[in-house]
């Protein structure tokens, strides 16, 4: 059942992101009364579909994107196939004013970006905005990056990696992208500002390497719950369930997820009794860690703070949606910049369909519907921004060529059809090479899973 849910989640997330993108092109073309010959989810040979009016709505064999074939537009004919020859001139895309063609090209990425904004906006309006903890050090892992750097409980981080007054999510995001790299920070302690250097602990799991600070911020008095639970693990066999509230571990009151993680790491060779609250009923569950199929000795569950939601109005929901997406863009841009400068490997940064499937499955398993739509928003945002790049075949490439044509027209020049076709062919080859790379990269990472036996991260404890 878990595999089926993962497959359905992957199909929904990838399919929705592609359909919404193509719908953007489709609806603007229809508004301008431009002929839409084909609305395809996927590339290559037609698998099935239905023709309504003048448009063939189809699913094609290669599920790595999609396209809308517009009447009179033969720029992508190597991919989309040749169009009909009997289309009236007033319905032909290539005969429309340049500004209309640019708007049609922009509509797909814009639809993806609007989707990415609407998901956290809707969540904030319905449930509230997550209360982000202040960057104040609470619990630290013994011998971890934070302790080695000289941080102390109660320190407030006022500068991190050159960012003044950072939010906790910014600190964590920068650390994730900087495993093993020294980062400068300034903490406020007893009224004094103290400069320190912290080197995030490099943790490799499932072929991905990330950096962790080995401390958790002060969330205040919030419940610590069971966020993830592995089947056939000591914890699940002992009766632990998802979303159980952890009250105590071997009699010690629980104040943070890291406290639970650290205690279990330090007492793996003895039975551990977890006192929990389940639907108002208090009970004890005892289990002992053992080696699981991934080669790690653990109980098989992940504790996490249940961050409270703060109800707000329209303005706070909009602010939250915009800031969430800007942070994703900032981290994505930083990761790609590290690839260009050689600080980060492309293999550890870029993912294809298998990587998306794994991320979708993990997100849905951990967070349910919130994880499903969160992953859709993340993928939509990246799809929208990627398609704005000035690469032929992509929307950004089409916009670039239209702007270039406009510039050349001011001096009496124009791009010949032969030149346009050659540019599109180069772009097509680039996209195919990128697809081959990310798919082969996914396969390599898939077979490298489990090769690392690093200790679990403190900020993302995996017990």
Q: Please give the order of strands in the largest beta sheet.
A: 6-5-7-8
**Full CATH superfamily name of the largest domain:** PDZ domain
CATH architecture of the largest domain: Roll
Mean pLDDT: 84
Number of domains: 3
- End-to-end separation in angstroms reads 24 Å
Percent of residues in helices comes to: 40-55%
Number of helices: 12
Class computed from helices, strands and strand pairing: alpha+beta
CATH top level of the largest domain is Mainly Beta
The profile of the biggest β sheet is: 4 strands, antiparallel
Shape: elongated
CATH-derived topology of the largest domain: Pdz3 Domain
Low-confidence stretches: 450-463
Content of β-strand: 15-25%
Count of DSSP E strands? 20
What is the radius of gyration? 26 Å
SSE order and pairing:
Elements: H1 2-31, E1 36-52, E2 55-70, H2 77-80, H3 98-127, E3 129-130, E4 134-140, H4 145-149, E5 156-160, E6 163-164, H5 168-176, E7 183-189, E8 192-198, E9 201-205, E10 208-212, E11 215-218, E12 224-229, H6 234-237, E13 245-249, E14 252-253, H7 257-266, E15 272-278, E16 281-287, E17 290-291, E18 297-298, E19 301-305, E20 309-310, H8 314-341, H9 353-367, H10 369-387, H11 395-409, H12 417-447
Antiparallel strand pairs: 1-2, 3-20, 4-11, 5-6, 5-7, 7-8, 9-10, 12-19, 13-14, 13-15, 15-16, 17-18
